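Side project, low priority. Logging it here so it doesn't get lost.
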Amino acid sequence: MARRFDHSTEEITEMTLNWVADFLTTQPVESLSLRQVAKGIGYSPGTLINVFGSYSLLLLRVNADTLDRLTDAMTQAMTAESDSEAQLYAMADAYLSFALHNRHIWRLVFELKLPEEEALPDWQQQRIDQLLTMLKGLLRSMHPSAEDLALEQTARVIWAGVHGISVLAVEDKLFSPAELDNRHMVQTLIKHYLAGWQSAGLEI
């Protein structure tokens, strides 16, 4: 096992996050433990606690990297489209695709529960807020006169719907016929919600 100071704190952090990300490409988080991570990078569990503060915060750092990757994927998908509605569909497609191709690490983002005494750090909350801000920005560009509360609710409803379909798709529990694929379901959800929202006068 490596001595405590064979690597800097930054290097240990990077080694740990990369090792966990690699592990979660094929294995679920239920198969992971602090001792296993420590063994994987050649350090003691105590060293990892000193670096991250707790096992939960270690996993939360993994989640932060995952959200950064998800945000990048959604941003790239959006930039390929010219109008806001097409960008919204592209964003949703990218979200679903990311979930399906990164099942275990994506699930960890939503399944990790911090102990009651550990508040969600600002750096993680900011990442979550950024995703909703992107969505609200598209909705605002589509309907500049919409009320702020309507935008907030619409953004969260659309995200919840896309997320729900993604969860069921990842778990293979949609039980849908072959001709009704996941992407079509996501697009149909957005299409009908936007139509209903607009016909209601863009107000709650």
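Brief comment: The chain has a mean pLDDT of 90.
Revisit when time allows.
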